Amino acid sequence: MPMTEIRSAVRSDLSGIKSCALAAYSLYIERIGREPAPMIADFAASIEAGHLFVIEQSEKIAGFVVFYVQHDHVHLENVAVNPEFQQRGIGSRLIEFVEQQAKTAGLSRVELYTNAKMTENLALYPRLGYQPFDRRVEDGFDRVYFKKSL
Questions:
Q1: CB under 8 Å to 136, separation ≥6 — which residues?
Q2: Which CATH entry fits the domain spanning 7-149: 1.20.120.1730, 3.30.1050.10, 3.90.1150.10, 3.40.630.30?
């Protein structure tokens, strides 16, 4: 089934976004010892700020991404794909969208962080061209920072 285009999220997407986040991040609760930060994010504020974009499949939110300009780069805050729709290239498409938006804005770098216990991400981001550059504990989370020059 074809995917829709990536679009700006609207208020009526909020329930679907929260469901997607819950499905995507629940498996990390036991590993981290608490809900990962993306599960408790203020998605309504991200929608209002124009920082949240979604992709739908089968009339459901299949995935979403939250990003914004921060100083001289784009900060990729959150990317999630509902497990029901994983392994279809949705996550890569969302990240490529962020990178394209950064280029369009005249920025040459994307930065992000992930929890050190999300080992899948520690393997994924280097495959997508991201390089680790920092690690720190913030808000009780052990975070690994990555960046990619565009």
A1: 143, 145
A2: 3.40.630.30
Rg for the chain, CA atoms, rounded: 15
Structure tokens at 149: 């020059």
DSSP 26: G
* Cβ neighbours around 73 below 10 Å, total: 18
pTM of the complete model beyond 0.90: yes
H or E element in which residue 78 lies: strand 73-81
CB 4, CB 62: distance < 8 Å: no
- Residue 78 has a CB neighbour count (10 Å cut-off) of 23
For the stretch 45-91, pLDDT in tens is 999 999 999 999 988 999 999 999 999 999 999 999 999 999 999 99
| In the chain, where the domains are located | 7-149
Q: Are 44 and 15 in contact (CB under 8 A)?
A: no
Cβ neighbours of residue 91 under 8 Å, at least 6 residues apart? 63, 79, 81
DSSP class of 150: -
